[in-house]
Amino acid sequence: MSLVAVQVFGRSQLKISGITSLAGEPLAGGAARIKGAQNGTVTDASGNYQIIAKDTDMLIFFFVGREKTEIAVNKKDHINLVLKESNCLIKKGF
Fold first, then answer.
1. Is residue 15 part of a domain?
2. Strand-strand pairing, 31-34 and 40-42
3. 89 part of a folded domain
4. Is the pTM of this model over 0.85?
5. Is the dihedral of CA 72, 49, 85, 62 positive or negative?
6. CATH of the domain at 72
7. Is residue 3 part of a domain?
8. Mean pLDDT, to the nearest integer, of 52-67?
9. What angle do CA 76, 82, 85 make, to 5 degrees?
10. Average of per-residue pLDDT values in the chain
11. 10 Å Cβ neighbour count for 23?
12. Residue-wise DSSP of 20-33
């Protein structure tokens, strides 16, 4: 009985890793976080990252001048992505 409860109510923790890039070039300093949580990480000089998330979590990747990208974990332990250039203009001043 408890085995079924673990399968139904338990949420597996996964160590997720991958590479972020800009048109094939590594993205250093990009951010990845779990949607709705404060947990996050930053990509290293080679664009690599690691984060611990639940298999039901949504990851959000972002970098200045690039479109924010959301990807469902869906039990994946390796997620690579390319962040697309943003079409938003940054206004000077406030």
1. yes
2. antiparallel
3. no
4. no
5. positive
6. 2.60.40.1120
7. no
8. 92
9. 145
10. 82
11. 9
12. EEETTEE-TT-EEE
Q: Whole-angstrom Cα distance, residue 50 to residue 62?
A: 15
Cα separation, 61 vs 68, in Å, equals 6
Helix, strand, coil abundance in the chain, percent, nearest 5? 10, 45, 50
Residue 93: what are its φ and ψ, rounded to 5°? 80, 175
Which structural domain, as residue segments, surrounds residue 72?
A: 11-82
Sign of the alpha-carbon torsion through 93, 86, 25, 28: positive
pLDDT-wise least confident of 9-13, 62-66, 72-76: 9-13
- Which tokens is 22 given? 């800009």
Which pLDDT value is given to residue 37?
Answer: 94
Which position has the token pair 């079409």?
Answer: 87
Cα–Cα distance for residue pair 1/45, rounded to 1 Å: 48
Report whether 46 contacts 52 (CB < 8 A): no
Calpha distance 37→59 (Å, rounded): 10
The answer as to whether 4 is a domain residue is no
